[in-house]
Amino acid sequence: MAKLYPEVLIFACNWDGWSCIDAASNLGLRYPASVKLVRVNCLSRIHAGLILKAFDFGAEGVMLLGCVPGMCHFGADSEYIINECEKAQRILEMLGVWRDRLVLVRLPAYDGHGFVGEVNKLMEEIDRIPPSKRSKLIRSRPAQHAKV
Amino acid sequence: MFDFQNVTENTRIRLCLDCGKCTVVCPVARYDPEFNPRLIVQNTLSQNGRGPVDERIWSCITCNMCMERCNYNVGFTDFIRYLRYAALAEGTEVQCSHGGTPQAIMHMMAHKEIRQNRLDWLPKDIKVQKQSDTAFFVGCAPYFDVLFNDLGVKTVEGPKGALRLLNRAQIPFTILSNERCCGRDLLLQGDTEGFLALAQANMSEFGKRGIKKIITSCPECYYTLKVDYPNFLENWDINVAHATEVLAQFVESGQLVLGDHQQKVTYHDPCTLGRYSRIFDQPRSILHSIDGLEMIEMADSREKALCCGASPWVHCGSVNRQIQKERLAQAAATGADILVTACPKCQIHLKCAQKNAENNDVCQIEIQDIFDLAAQSLSSEEAS
User: Fold this and answer.
1) Distance to chain A for B361, nearest Cα, Å
2) Could you say which of A51, A74, B72, B265 is the most buried, measured as most Cβ atoms within 10 Å of its Cβ?
3) Which of B92, B108, B191 comes nearest A52 by C-beta?
4) In this complex, is the C-beta atom of B90 within 8 Å of any C-beta atom belonging to chain A?
5) pTM greater than 0.90 (yes/no)
6) Alpha-carbon Rg for chain B in angstroms
7) Is B193 part of the contact surface with chain A (CB cutoff 8 Å)?
8) ipTM of the complex
9) B340-369: pLDDT as tens digits
């Protein structure tokens, strides 16, 4: 039986972040199909609420993929996402969900190999979590409609 | 879960005489002419609850001022809760404040698999029993401190102070490492399923630990555990007390002697502790028993106390800000050094108004939790 990979959600910025994923597919690099991608215009669109919601709906890991500091397409600084990521990590820790399941990855444009390396690293990190602590949350209730 | 017929009976909404007293006292209606409790009731009743969803139902801050004034005891806030429930069931979208993070935390806590790691804030000097039938319910303060770190709130100082006071009064208690949020915000927001999931998780946690009595320092948790849980859960037979009730008894009988604190303070009644739970005197008697503390009442206090402009983390906007500004102006008018409150959410909302003030038009009075203040007076006594 093929190995089951953890479900990982990637929020990727449309610019350098997405170009890495593009490059990975152009180069024919392989990464597990359990990776789901959400393309956003800038990582500043993502906040702690959305990250936690991903875990609430069953993600076992979340990656925030953006550009290296100083390279933001919009010229904005990246303090916002650093703060939000840290906030979400602290909340995850308090909720007893391993904080290393959430990573902020910043890569230069078209770094396909770097992207696949980071995905594999996150997968290994999740695999390292002891089974007793690696609970996948399954939302039994219907999703509440909310603008976030 | 609810039907319109039952709700109209339980909330006595058909007794509404269309007099509009609710709208006169409503703090939201004062700043938002579009919001009108009287018309919301009339429009919904005239269409037998089948009309389109009224967007304005999300603006209500459920401060219960309308019910205080209503001569027929019409439960407008309960009615709003039902309208929100019905609106969500129809698929209406809610505008969540803070990116929906509080809601996401509450939903995550509702999962059975969650094993929280939430007691890092607990100082070593506080004595907690491993086994006791009395539990101290901390509430979401540890989460609020992370979430609202940028506002500089320290809501966990409230429970810390309450625990120190309980230790001094020699009341034994235990703390549950896996307690969930009480779910009040989900209930007020209309997400009754989410609330029930949290309530059931909490009940099974209390059952496992053999809890018979709960003391809490958070007014929202107090009201939810005491009033809403028995309504929604069968077999709920846990005695719930607010820490001010417990401590005021000890202070009045002389078993707990508080220290000295030379300052002028004013007390802000949280809606859930005051108008909802009718606990007005206990916090005041705790404050009066602190030596040197001068207590000045605000223009609107006790039953008439203005809300902090809170909402169950939805639709927070300029109207809420205006209410917060008005409350802070009332506090400034007393000339007090500290605004004392008993609710972590009041602290967050008022600090948010102070932090986001433009042109210094908001009073920057210090805001402190009542238990934190009372516990500080103990330590000043020990130092001397």
Assistant:
1) 27
2) A51
3) B108
4) no
5) yes
6) 21
7) yes
8) 0.89
9) 999 999 999 999 999 988 767 788 899 999
